[in-house]
Write a structure and sequence with these properties.
single chain, alpha/beta, 4-stranded antiparallel sheet, about 40% helix, globular, binds 4'-deoxy-4'-aminopyridoxal-5'-phosphate
């Protein structure tokens, strides 16, 4: 029978390494309390929502958006404290910026490096763009293993190193001195991914002028705007203008451009929400410390990584899910994330339900 009839033609043409992958899986939350994806739990005050809605009706959806999103870029650069002599491009989420970076740097045999465990998209996108990926294990405190990093940099000469600061899923900030050493050792680009900057305060943005191989990435996703899909990459124009050539025209749609500008004009509202999340993180850490058997890791982000002594993470995950609370469980059973779970900081009410239900499961 011909391939046209059996449907085998895709198997013949799709790259083998793509066929081996599974699609990125996002669990369906239904009516559950959703504490699995590092989202901000808050919507906007009614007054702000109504103002936004009335302004939205004038948006020309029949026209293409501003291809460079100039107004929004300027606003974001201001809010994110991008130094005046640096340039920026925007992405459809910082995921797209990682893809743009890899597309621009991909040459036969070029290497993407990242400490592990970290954000999985660095590895995924390295594969999509035909780059080689080298993950270098973090030490037992989830800090950078500088001996291993130095050796790996020397051996593999990475085109790009991604450092999430704070790191996902561990939640901690790497030592800034170690990051500086890595920037100095790296032969190629270093991307400091500050997706969780809003909850951490620390930043490499002021260091951009000091290093010609550093760029800094941020997202609005964790500031309460995950649905808009918007990230920003800032650095010297030598890098940014090249990345801009790979960016698809109109990658930031009109509704996102308008809505993000509107939201950032009300950044006091977003800031209040972030402050609330930071305060609730400390409350949740203290409440989790009261529960017997919980080992939690230090967090400067809007989530907490933890595990429970003598109890399988699968059991806890499923029992929480059955009680109506969705958190994140890690599939790897032997690596440093073995038996780990990650909970996102929700609203105070959501956190109380989580901690009560977890307490019941552990008792
Ligand atoms: N970087 C890190 C470290 C992340 O954890 C995430 C999302 N979880 C992203 C980037 C992607 O963020 P977004 O595409 O929503 O901007």
């Amino acid at each position: 029978m011909s391939d046209r009839v059996t449907g085998n033609i895709a198997r013949q043409w799709i790259r083998d390494d793509i066929r081996e992958l599974s699609a990125y899986h996002v669990p369906e939350p239904g009516k559950m309390i959703k504490l699995d994806a590092m989202e901000n739990p808050y919507l906007w005050p009614d007054e702000m929502k109504l103002e936004w809605l009335s302004l939205l009706s004038d948006i020309p959806v029949n026209r293409y958006p501003d291809p460079s999103a100039a107004k929004l870029t300027a606003r974001l650069e201001h809010v994110m404290n991008v130094p005046h002599d640096m340039s920026s491009i925007l992405g459809n989420g910082s995921d797209e910026l990682i893809q743009i970076i890899c597309m621009a740097l991909s040459k036969p045999d070029s290497v993407v490096m990242a400490p592990e465990p970290t954000f999985v998209m660095y590895q995924m996108i390295a594969r999509f763009t035909n780059m080689k990926y080298q993950g270098i294990p973090l030490d037992s405190h989830f800090q950078l293993d500088m001996t291993a990093m130095a050796e790996a940099i020397e051996t593999h000469q990475p085109a790009v190193i991604f450092l999430a600061y704070p790191n996902n899923p561990t939640g901690n900030l790497f030592s800034p001195q170690d990051i500086k050493k890595i920037i100095e050792m790296a032969p190629g680009l270093v991307v400091v991914d500050e997706a969780y900057h809003a909850f951490a305060g620390h930043s490499f943005m002021p260091m951009l002028a000091e290093y010609d191989n550093l760029v800094v990435m941020r997202t609005v996703s964790k500031m309460g705007l995950a649905g808009l899909r918007l990230g920003i990459l800032s650095g010297r124009s030598e890098w940014i203008s090249e990345f801009d050539k790979v960016r698809l025209p109109y990658n930031i749609n009109v509704l996102t451009q308008f809505s993000a500008e509107f939201a950032l004009e009300h950044d006091d509202v977003l800031q209040r929400q972030t402050d609330q999340i930071c305060a609730d993180r400390e409350i949740l850490k203290a409440a989790m410390a009261e529960l017997k058997g919980i080992i939690q890791y230090p967090s400067a982000a809007n989530f907490i990584l933890f595990k429970v002594d003598n109890m399988n993470s699968e059991t806890i995950f499923t029992a929480l899910k059955d009680s109506g609370v969705l958190i994140k469980r890690f599939a790897d059973t032997s690596g440093p994330l073995a038996n780990c779970l990650r909970v996102t900081i929700g609203s105070p009410e959501e956190n109380i339900v989580f901690i009560k239900n977890l307490g019941k499961i552990l008792s």
